[in-house]
Design goal:
16% strand, four-stranded antiparallel β-sheet, alpha+beta, paralog of FGE (formylglycine-generating enzyme), 419 residues, 16 strands
């Protein structure tokens, strides 16, 4: 009798469990319903670069004889990319945020959280023109007697952005180790090096542009320069943090991060869907039918102004390529996340290729080379080509190197194929 009652209870439990299933599924496999309606966000100022087949490599004669861009076919998953290079105004949002956050920490402006921790109160306004506040933050200023202008100025060298990164790949390849072994702490001085206009251009009067380029409103929409690779990385970490915190505050899903494109993503985006074209606009010419130059570079025998720009130009000048990306050739060369190795094209994967070497403190200098792409206002047309590779050392800032970001989402790898 006891055994029979147990069987009846089990059957009743089974019936009850079945009644709690998805209504109306008729016993069919229909999938568990989502707990939220989701639509992938489009970050402001970015355009979508579809998945597709990249025929990468040199599109013209290898005039340098480096043989570092051999022709090869790979596949690239879609991503979002900034339509323009990061501008002075956009980068200034980053430096001002760091400046205010450091002030709040020193002033003790914190918010008590529910879990007992504290968070910096960034909603409070820091009035840097307030003399009393300047006295409280005197350690952020250079005394008047130590400047060349006879008045105290803010010491931009004090702007340091601290963050931590986690090397997921290294953790996957060594699963028996503690995950904390794959975390790296960074502390980066993030203000652009404004002296590059003077130091790198010898016997040239560039003091006015050096003193004004990074802050004067007339240069707001010009590409930020004087930033090294580490500063570009720090900017993207901050941008991700800003995006993530806002979405989580509004109970919205977060699934990606901002980063520098690797060189293969960059080349795929630059081509704009034009297979094997030498330039973002196609080619083979660097002028249109009216004889107007299509990018900001060094045309002819050094007539810098012939293309409409003596130095840099606003980030949205000249026609965009077919993906809607501006200045993928010329204006400023752009940092990528890829380490530069001359033989990289020979060993990268066929799908989503990359060479992302994690730099170590004691690495020789040649291991610190990072790929730059696109050429700049001071380069000849060869460096404007989609397939041309160049490099610079990660800790070096130049008056002709900037960057733009990509936003990589986890989503189906849809191609740009048209049925």
């Amino acid at each position: 009798m006891k055994q029979l009652s147990l069987k009846i209870s089990a059957v009743a439990l089974l019936v009850f469990a079945a009644s709690c299933g998805t209504p109306g599924n008729g016993g069919q496999l229909v999938g568990e319903p989502n707990v939220m309606n989701y639509k992938a966000p489009v970050p402001l100022g970015m355009v979508y670069i579809p998945s597709g087949v990249l025929k990468m490599g040199a599109s013209d004669e290898d005039v340098r004889g480096k043989k570092d861009a051999m022709i090869r076919t790979t596949q690239v998953t879609g991503f979002y990319m900034d339509a323009t290079e990061i501008s002075n105004q956009e980068y200034r949002q980053f430096t001002n945020w760091v400046r205010d956050s450091m002030a709040h920490v020193q002033l003790g402006d914190f918010i008590d959280m529910e879990d007992g921790s504290q968070r910096v109160d960034m909603k409070k306004r820091v009035n840097w023109n307030d003399p009393d506040l300047q006295d409280m933050l005197a350690n952020f200023y250079i005394p008047a007697q130590s400047t060349g202008w006879g008045k105290k100025v803010f010491d931009n060298a004090k702007l340091i952005y601290a963050y931590e990164t986690y090397n997921y790949r290294a953790d996957v390849e060594a699963p028996d180790q503690d995950a904390t072994n794959f975390k790296t702490k960074h502390a980066v001085k993030i203000y652009p090096d404004t002296t590059v206009w003077v130091r790198q251009l010898k016997y040239s009067y560039n003091e006015p542009i050096a003193l004004q380029y990074n802050w004067f409103p007339a240069f707001n929409n010009y590409p930020v320069v004087g930033v090294n690779w580490h500063q570009a990385q720090a900017f993207n970490n901050w941008r991700t943090m800003l995006w993530k915190s806002e979405r989580e505050k509004n109970k919205m899903y977060f699934e990606g991060e901002f980063m520098l494109p690797n060189e293969f993503q960059w080349e795929w985006a630059a081509r704009g869907g034009r297979t094997e074209a030498p330039y973002p606009w196609g080619g083979p010419y660097i002028v249109n039918k009216k004889g107007c130059y299509l990018a900001n570079f060094k045309p002819q025998r050094g007539n810098y102004a012939a293309d409409g720009g003596l130095y840099t130009v606003p980030v949205d000048r000249y026609w965009p390529n077919d993906y809607g990306l501006y200045n993928m050739a010329g204006n400023v060369a752009e940092w990528t996340s890829s380490s530069y190795f001359g033989t990289a094209y020979q060993f990268v994967a066929d799908v989503n290729p990359t060479v992302a070497y994690e730099m170590q403190e004691n690495d020789p200098q040649w291991m610190r080379r990072k790929v730059t792409r696109g050429g700049s206002w001071r380069d000849v047309a060869f460096y404007l080509q989609n397939g041309t590779r160049d490099y610079e050392y990660a800790d070096t800032a130049k008056a002709y190197i900037g960057f733009r970001s990509v936003y990589q989402q986890i989503q189906p790898a849809l191609t740009n194929r048209r049925e």
